[in-house]
């Protein structure tokens, strides 16, 4: 009677462990899918992969920026913050290109090198941008990233979507998947050993 209870308890434990392992594998697959449709596209669009040295040519702060409209005439773009434009000499090609802080800066405002965060205090924002401009004038040579394929002719100061970040994003689902598979394998080994013991 005691032996039957032990066997029943063992089977229940194996069933629970097997369900846990399968659940971990299923959850890791869902995490892989979620990362694949939300995070990976940002990394694939980041073409600034090669590091080089940039030298500042000019750093200007403008309240208004000229743009050419469809009719060929020039209009002025007015922003709620001073527009910092930094032009650098790209050592790799010798070209004069515009510098952006990150990949997101180009998407948020292609006219400005730096886009400040949300702040209601315009004086603080202006002082911050003036400090950044003075730092560029002070430290004129620094590492930057450019697109070796030539799709983007501008450069960025720092990468938001570095390959190391993508590896870190896949780390947790990989650990969960490995742990789930390990639990399943251990349960199967336990069941196999139990069968061998019963035959003996």
Describe the structure.
With 200 residues, this protein is α+β, with helices and mostly antiparallel strands. Helix content is 52%, strand content 24%. It is built from 5 helices and 5 strands; from the N terminus they run ααβββααββα. Strands 1-2-3-5-4 form a 5-stranded mixed β-barrel. A hairpin with an 8-residue loop joins strand 4 and strand 5. Helix 1 runs antiparallel to helix 5. The longest helix has 37 residues, at 2-38. The model is unreliable at 66-75 (pLDDT under 50).
Determine the strand fraction and express it as a percent band.
15-25%
Helix and strand sequence: HHEEEHHEEH
Q: What's the alpha carbon Rg, rounded to whole Å?
A: 28 Å
Note the gap between the termini.
20 Å
Q: Tally the beta strands.
A: 5
Instruction: Determine the number of helices (DSSP H or I, runs of at least 4 residues).
Output: 5
Characterize the biggest β-sheet: 5 strands, mixed, barrel
- Look at the helices and sheets and give the structural class: alpha+beta
Give the overall shape, derived from the CA principal axes.
elongated
Strands of the largest sheet, in order across it?
1-2-3-5-4
The averaged pLDDT comes out at 82
Give unreliable regions as ranges: 66-75
Query: What share of the residues lie within helices?
Result: 40-55%
Subunit arrangement of the protein:
single chain
């Amino acid at each position: 009677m005691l032996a039957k209870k032990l066997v029943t308890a063992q089977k229940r434990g194996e069933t629970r462990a097997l369900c846990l392992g399968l659940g971990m594998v299923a959850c890791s697959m869902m995490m892989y899918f979620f990362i694949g449709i939300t995070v990976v596209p940002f990394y694939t669009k980041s073409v600034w992969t090669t590091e080089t040295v940039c030298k500042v040519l000019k750093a200007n702060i403008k309240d208004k920026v000229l743009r050419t409209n469809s009719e060929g005439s020039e209009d002025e773009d007015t922003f709620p913050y001073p527009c910092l434009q930094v032009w650098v000499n790209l050592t790799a090609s010798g070209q004069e290109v515009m510098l952006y802080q990150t990949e997101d800066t180009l998407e948020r405002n292609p006219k400005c090198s730096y886009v400040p965060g949300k702040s209601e205090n315009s004086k603080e924002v202006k002082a911050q941008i003036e400090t950044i401009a003075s730092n560029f004038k002070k430290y004129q040579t620094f590492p930057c990233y450019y697109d070796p394929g030539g799709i983007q002719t501008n450069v960025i100061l720092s990468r938001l979507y570095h390959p190391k970040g993508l590896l870190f994003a896949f780390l947790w689902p990989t650990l969960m998947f490995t742990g789930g598979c390990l639990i399943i394998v251990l349960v199967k080994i336990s069941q196999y050993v139990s069968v061998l013991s019963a035959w003996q």
